[in-house]
Amino acid sequence: MPRDDAIIFGDLIGKLDMLRVAYDKCGRDGCYGLAKLIDKRGHDGKIVDWLDAITADCPKKSVQNMSERCGARCPDVPRVL
Q1: Among candidates 54, 45, 46, 49, which has minimal Cα distance to 23?
Q2: Could you give the maximum distance between any two Cα atoms of the chain, in Å?
Q3: What is the rounded distance in angstroms from the CA atom of residue 12 to the CA atom of residue 80?
Q4: pTM above 0.70, yes or no
Q5: Could you tell me which of 24, 60, 62, 80 has the fewest CB atoms within 10 Å of its CB?
């Protein structure tokens, strides 16, 4: 799979054990084990693709107002890269 300058799970090895996801618009949040994510999505799996998949059922995903759209993010990733 081409990387396209995306952050992949392999970039986080040795930097994070858990990947925290914050959903600012809908108030949900969660933590996912990096090793388990790599097992399921692969070393080269793109975080952006994974975020898209786990937010597929979010009611804020397709609202018309851009400022109200789902804002799922991994707040710890910029800190370690």
Answers
A1: 54
A2: 39
A3: 8
A4: yes
A5: 62
pLDDT per residue as tens, the chain (81 positions): 557 789 999 999 999 999 999 988 877 789 999 999 999 999 999 999 999 999 888 887 777 887 777 888 999 999 999
Query: What is the residue-wise DSSP string for 39-66?
Result: HHH-TT-BHHHHHHHHTTT-TTTT-SSG
Structure tokens that stand for 47 in this block: 């975080």
Contact yes or no for 21/32 (Cβ under 8 A)? yes
Which structure tokens are listed for 51?
A: 């975020």
Both structure tokens of 28: 């949900």
For residue 26, the 8-state DSSP code is T
Asked if 16 contacts 72 with a C-beta cutoff of 8 angstroms, the reply is no
Please state, in angstroms and rounded to a whole number, the distance separating the CA atoms of residues 78 and 67: 22
